[in-house]
UniProtKB/TrEMBL annotation:
Its EC number is 2.1.1.-, 3.4.23.43. Plays an essential role in type IV pili and type II pseudopili formation by proteolytically removing the leader sequence from substrate proteins and subsequently monomethylating the alpha-amino group of the newly exposed N-terminal phenylalanine. GO terms for molecular function: aspartic-type endopeptidase activity; methyltransferase activity. This is Prepilin leader peptidase/N-methyltransferase. Residues 11-90 form the Prepilin peptidase A24 N-terminal domain. Signal peptide: none annotated. One of its GO terms (biological process) is signal peptide processing. It comes from Candidatus Saganbacteria bacterium. One of its GO terms (cellular component) is plasma membrane. Its main location: membrane.
Length: 255
């Protein structure tokens, strides 16, 4: 068990390093393959020994070896975060199980979408248009394809309708279309029951975050606030603990 967790963390940190590339390049419509990794400040190529997840950031003191400019802490944060989620996932699925790699892909998509939304205000279409068919394919092999399609449609339609209601009420766009597509992706993976919980949690978390930003005057009413991270956190909570949460409330309601 411990060995699996350690290996999963290392694997996750490597994937997290690649997610950083996606977050930086996809919103800019740049290739994720060419050119090789380079410093965004001085444009010097990054040597392999300066590109080791987590370790290189620490050894370099969070600075570029060439120009000494600061490296965004987002890089090491995502490497650690992805490693932790993969470690948690390994306690549910073994390395020889499809579920581990499938849900590792789903979690990676959510992380990339969330941080793209935070930094650029964009959820790249590439993440959605690869993620939804992948969810269908996984659930096809799990004999849940029909539920996956229903979940995808439910996610899309529910947020689309909420967005239209908000647009009518506030006379402007209240919800980005990227969030609508992200909800469709979530539904394709989580299926309808866990999707409902994920959306509820996403809205609750977003509401708390908005209140915090308003109280401390970090944002004011009418400012654009990314919703993708809230949805993604709700999806991950629902993925790992959704069954237990749903069963707990059903037991309370019917006992």
């Amino acid at each position: 068990m411990v060995v699996n967790i350690i290996i999963s963390f290392a694997f996750g940190s490597i994937i997290g390093s690649f997610l950083n590339v996606l977050i930086h390049r996809l919103p800019r419509e740049e290739s994720v393959i060419f050119p090789q990794s380079h410093c965004p400040h001085c444009k010097k190529n990054i040597a392999w020994f300066d590109n080791i997840p987590i370790i290189s950031f620490i050894m370099l003191g969070g600075k570029c070896r060439s120009c000494k400019n600061n490296i965004s802490p987002r890089y090491i944060f995502i490497e650690i975060l992805t490693g932790l989620f993969f470690s948690l996932l390994s306690t549910y699925y073994g390395f020889n199980e499809l579920g581990f790699y499938a849900f590792a892909f789903f979690i990676s998509s959510l992380i990339a979408a969330s941080f793209s939304d935070i930094e650029h205000g964009i959820i790249p279409d590439e993440l959605i248009f690869i993620g939804i068919p992948a969810g269908f394919l996984f659930n096809y092999f799990s004999n849940n394809l029909a539920s996956s399609i229903i979940g995808c449609l439910a996610g899309f339609l529910s947020l689309y309708l909420i967005g239209q209601i908000g647009k009518f009420a506030y006379k402007k766009e209240a919800l980005g279309f990227g969030d609508v597509k992200l909800a469709a992706l979530m539904g394709a993976w989580l299926l309808p029951d866990k999707l409902l919980l994920a959306l509820f949690l996403g809205y609750a978390l977003a509401a708390v975050w908005v209140v915090f930003l308003m109280v401390f005057k970090i944002k004011k009413f009418g400012d654009t606030i990314p919703f993708g991270p809230g949805l993604s956190i709700g999806a991950i909570i629902s993925l790992f603990w959704g069954g237990a949460i749903i069963n707990f409330y059903l037991a309370r309601c019917f006992n």
